[in-house]
UniProtKB/TrEMBL annotation:
Record localization: Membrane
Similarity field: Belongs to the TMC family.
Protein name (record): Transmembrane channel-like protein
Membrane topology: Multi-pass membrane protein
Region annotated Disordered, chain positions: 27-63
Compositional bias per record (Low complexity), positions renumbered to this chain: 41-51
Spans through the membrane: 147-169, 245-263, 338-360, 392-415, 427-447, 479-497, 584-608, 650-671
Origin species: Uria aalge
Bias (Basic and acidic residues): 52-63
GO CC entries: plasma membrane
UniProt main location, coarse: membrane
The keyword Nucleotide-binding is annotated on this UniProt entry: no
Gene: Tmc7
Superkingdom of origin organism: Eukaryota
Length: 697
């Protein structure tokens, strides 16, 4: 054995590494494998190579031989290792030979299937082309857009197969099916009156256009909205299908699917993000020696990457300068900057309050005037543009708030004296909060109108039945309008802003036009756009089951709009972000949007009384009431088990166990962090003392 000098070991302690369970397990496996190798392996280099072939044979006589190509050896050594591995097969029993052969065959088949499936990926060639021309940062945006297309398509398949398809089959009597509508019991008759505002008689052609844009008229009575599914039970043959329970479980299923899928994808980005959070010295080394993106093949993209690396180095130097400046600040300067930041944050809060109040007033005005016009049937007497403007007023105000507020935040952040990296993160988080909070304010405004009751008749129903006889469909229509209007804005910006600007810059040599130049393709802004739309989709799917299909078509078209915009009408951002950190950031913001979607859906399902005139939950006080009603039909023993799981006697110990598991993983993460820090210290020592490379054998 070769031991380190005492002073070296004292300078960098390695005893902690040897105390880890993984290190002890590795020692045991190495000792076991070493004993077997000494018994069977010949002497010399060939023996060492043969020992490598035996080493993967672990406890339990399980054969897990690594292929020769995975070893860090030369080609000649790999060939000798492969020959040794093949020669060792004849000394194994027939069962072990079959097991090793079948394992290799299975790995080969899986590898070929994985390679084949990569060719079937949506937009595979397009995304690779974008990656080659503009780098991995912009490619991450289009990969993220592809992920949302697939996610929405799967959610659509889930909702269509569990909710829409059974309703269509039963209503049209397919496959010897039928359905039943049970009249609500102990409910006032006026609460069950629902007359959709469908088109009757001869109407103008623009009425259909208005209905298509607002979700009213003929669309209100289709499978697109909640009010269509007014069915209590279905029979397909002799089998009963509980549509209310299926509707609720499908909602929980698409939320759980989205959560699991996002977390699974974010784990890899989180690991890469941890790797990139190194000290400044390693950051400089990585940028200088490993910062080049070898996927780039376009000369313009190469020049852009040069400028990007130059910008990153300048940013790092600027951050170091600001850190020194911050360390040299006097107490008076610190008080001044803190007072300025407090004042700017007050302005930010005032801007947010103004946005929220404007959305609230616009929603109340739109709902009151739209419902009054529909109730008195005077839509034909109103101006078409004015009526459509009233219905789209909340969407217009939200879009204006999403556009104006970020511009104000970008202007104010310059005076707060933060580092460039923190400026970007803080501005993005403020923009995320504006976009997602605006949706919450819209829903709060709708709920305040839905829950407002001034008469005894209204209190008997539990909601404002006069304005909202089927309030779930009303909420679905608002989400539908937000989805459609968001797509119209994206398309209008491309056609009427980006394209004319490209023509002016190309064919006009005026200095002001050339100074403005092309609009940059901002990755973060585009990501916030689609996350905003995805949050609308998650919230609206409960009230409009086919909204994921619209979102899938919308994102499919947006992919080509953004691709054409990137290649022809815009230029890549001068300050691109790293692909690994951007992927992780995209998924974190998407996860925030999903968590925020849980809140309005939970309130709608468990708190607000369900409509008594439409929908599958009209016989229940709330949508959640279908769950205990279904459990009451189970056998007594199963009921006791389920109610026991839902009781405090089970919840408290379960919560304690979860806390213990969480604390264990936190401690394990802390131990791994210490290991990483010590390994970094050893890497530093290697540069100064080559003898430090020698370790215990």
């Amino acid at each position: 054995e070769v031991f380190l000098p005492e002073e070296t070991r004292g300078a960098t302690p390695v005893d902690f590494l040897q105390q880890l369970p993984s290190y002890q397990s590795a020692l045991r496996r190495r000792a076991t494998a070493g004993t077997q190798e000494r018994r069977a392996a010949p002497q010399g280099p060939a023996g060492l190579l043969a020992a490598e072939g035996h080493r993967p044979q672990q406890e339990g006589d399980e054969v897990a031989v690594r292929p020769a190509r995975e070893y860090p050896l030369t080609i000649a050594e790999k060939r000798r290792l492969r020959d040794c591995q093949q020669a060792d097969i004849k000394y194994l029993s027939g069962w072990k030979q079959w097991k090793r052969t079948s394992s290799k065959s299975l790995k080969k088949v899986l590898s070929e299937v994985k390679e084949l499936s990569s060719y079937l990926k949506l937009w595979r060639h397009d995304i690779h082309s974008i990656e080659g021309k503009f780098g991995t940062g912009i490619q991450s945006y289009f990969s993220f857009l592809r992920f949302l297309v697939l996610l929405n398509f799967i959610i659509f398949i889930l909702m269509f197969s569990l909710v829409t398809l059974p309703s269509i089959i039963s209503k049209y009597g397919m496959f010897n099916s039928s359905f039943a509508k049970i009249p609500p019991k102990n409910i006032e008759p006026h609460c069950t009156v629902y007359e959709p505002s469908g088109n009757k008689g001869l109407v103008y052609f623009y009425t259909y256009l208005k209905d298509l844009l607002s979700g009213t008229g003929f669309l209100e009575v289709t499978v697109l909205f909640y009010g269509y599914y007014t069915i209590d039970a279905e029979w397909i043959g002799i089998h009963k299908y509980n549509l209310p329970l299926a509707y609720l479980l499908a909602t929980f299923a698409y939320l759980a699917l989205s959560l699991i899928w996002i977390i699974k994808r974010s784990v890899g980005g989180f690991k890469q993000n941890l790797v990139h959070n190194e000290d400044p010295f390693q950051s400089y080394c990585n940028k200088v020696f490993a910062g080049w993106d070898f996927c780039i093949t376009d000369p313009n993209a190469a020049r852009l990457k040069h400028r990007s690396l130059q910008y990153e180095l300048q940013t790092d130097l600027e951050e170091e300068r600001l850190k020194r400046k911050e360390a040299d600040r006097t107490m008076k300067e610190k008080l001044c900057i803190y007072f300025l930041r407090i004042f700017i944050n007050i302005i930010v809060i005032a801007v947010l309050s103004g946005c929220f109040y404007s959305i609230y007033r616009a929603t109340v005005f739109s709902q009151e005037n739209s419902n009054v016009s529909i109730r008195h049937d005077d839509v034909s007497n109103m101006n078409f543009q004015a009526n459509l403007l009233v219905q789209y007023l909340p969407s217009i105000v939200i879009t204006l708030a999403n556009f104006i507020a970020p511009q104000i935040f970008s202007f104010l952040i310059r005076f707060e004296d933060y580092s460039p990296a923190f400026e970007i993160r803080l501005t993005l988080m403020r923009c995320v909060f504006v976009r997602l909070a605006n949706i919450g304010v819209l829903l709060f405004s709708l709920w305040s109108q839905i829950s407002y009751c001034a008469t005894d008749k209204c209190n008997a129903c539990g909601y404002n039945y006069e304005l909202y006889p089927c309030w779930e469909s009303e909420v679905g229509q608002e989400m539908y309008k937000l989805m459609i209007f968001d797509f119209i804005i994206i398309l209008a910006v491309f056609l009427f802003v980006d394209f004319p600007r490209k023509l002016l810059v190309t064919h006009c040599s005026c200095k002001p036009v050339q100074w403005c130049g092309l609009q940059e393709f901002g990755i973060s802004d585009n990501v916030l756009e689609i996350i905003y739309g995805q949050t609308i989709c998650w919230i609206g799917t409960f009230f409009s089951p086919l909204l994921p299909a619209i979102a899938t078509i919308k994102y499919f078209i947006i992919f080509y709009i953004k691709k054409i915009s990137l290649i022809h009408t815009r230029k890549p951002a001068a300050r691109p972000i790293r692909a690994s950190s951007s992927n992780f950031f995209f998924l974190v913001v998407l996860l925030i949007g999903l968590v925020l979607a849980f809140i309005p859906l939970g309130i709608s399902i468990a708190h607000i009384p369900s409509s008594k005139a439409c929908g599958p939950f009209r016989n229940f006080n709330t949508s959640w009431a279908v769950v205990p009603h279904t459990i009451d039909g189970f056998p007594t023993r199963l009921q006791q088990v389920l109610y026991g799981i839902a009781s405090e006697a089970f919840a408290v110990p379960f919560f304690m166990v979860i806390c213990l598991v969480m604390f264990y993983f936190i401690a394990l993460a802390g131990a791994h962090k210490r290991v990483v820090e010590q390994l970094r210290e050893q890497l530093v020592m290697v540069r100064f003392d080559p003898l430090f490379c020698t370790a215990k054998i």
